[in-house]
Design a protein that fits this description.
With about 220 residues, this protein is an alpha/beta fold. The chain has a domain of about 150 residues: Ribonuclease H-like superfamily/Ribonuclease H (Nucleotidyltransferase, domain 5). The longest helix has 18 residues.
C-alpha cells in the first residue's frame, strides 16, 4: 500500500490560523460535518477524504444516538483521524464549518464541556501522531459534500465507501464525487417530478435530502 511521505511521528502540532512552512507533498484533505436535530437530538456525522490529486478515497456517514451537534462534529473529526492512522496517511488537513471545533483544536478556545473534553483529548493525541496536521474553518457552502452525507445518515441511510490499495481509484475507474445541488420537485401520483431539467448522465446516482413544504 502506498502512503504519503513519512514524517516523524509526533512532529505535528495543532496549528493556529498562520501555518508554518509549506505543507509536505501528499497532503490529504478531509471535509467533516456533524448534525443534530434538536441539539441535543438525533445526530449523525460524515467524512469525505480526498488524496493530494483530489480523488475521493473515503465517504463515510453514520447515525448516532441523541447527541449535540458539537459532539457529532468531534465524532467526524475522530473518524477522519482514525482513517488516516489506519491507512498510512502522514499528512492531513481538516476542513470543518464548526468554528468551535476548529478553534478548540487550534488551542484558541478552551474546552469546558465535560462531553467534549475526552473527545478533544483523543483527537489531539491522534493529530500529534501525524507528521503534518492542520485544521481550518470553512463556510458551510464549502463543506457541502460532508453536509449532504450527514443529512443522508440522519434520515436513516448509512454511507461507507472507500478506495483501497493505493488510496485512490483504479486507473480505469472514475472516482465517485458528490456535488450538492438544490432542485425543487413535486410529488404527484407516486412520482417525484423535478421542476427543472436535471441534465444528469445516464445511470447517475442521486441522494435525496427531502424537505417537505406544507400544503397551502
Amino acid at each position: 500500500m502506498r502512503t504519503s511521505k513519512t514524517l516523524p511521528p509526533g512532529s505535528a502540532r495543532l496549528f493556529s490560523d498562520s501555518l508554518p512552512s509549506a505543507p509536505p507533498p501528499g497532503v490529504h484533505i478531509a471535509n467533516i460535518d456533524g448534525a443534530s436535530r434538536g441539539n441535543p437530538g438525533p445526530a449523525s456525522y460524515a467524512v469525505v477524504i480526498r488524496d493530494a490529486s483530489g480523488r475521493v478515497v473515503l465517504e463515510l456517514a453514520k447515525k448516532l444516538g441523541r447527541e449535540t451537534n458539537n459532539v457529532a462534529e468531534y465524532y467526524a473529526l475522530l473518524a477522519a483521524l482514525d482513517y488516516a492512522a489506519n491507512h498510512g496517511i502522514a499528512a492531513l488537513r481538516i476542513r470543518s464549518d464548526s468554528e468551535l471545533l476548529v478553534r478548540q483544536m487550534q488551542g484558541r478556545y478552551k474546552v469546558k464541556s465535560p462531553d467534549l473534553k475526552p473527545l478533544h483529548e483523543r483527537a489531539s493525541k491522534l493529530a500529534r501522531q501525524l507528521g503534518y496536521f492542520a485544521i481550518e474553518h470553512v463556510r458551510r457552502e464549502q463543506n457541502r459534500d460532508a453536509d449532504a452525507l450527514a443529512n443522508v445518515a440522519l434520515d436513516g441511510g448509512q454511507v461507507s465507501t472507500a478506495e483501497v490499495g493505493s488510496l485512490g481509484p483504479e486507473p480505469d475507474r472514475k472516482p465517485r464525487e458528490m456535488r450538492a445541488r438544490r432542485v425543487r420537485a413535486r410529488f404527484a401520483k407516486g412520482v417525484l417530478v423535478p421542476s427543472e431539467p436535471l441534465d444528469l448522465p445516464e445511470d447517475s446516482e442521486v441522494l435525496l435530502d427531502l424537505r417537505i413544504s406544507p400544503q397551502e
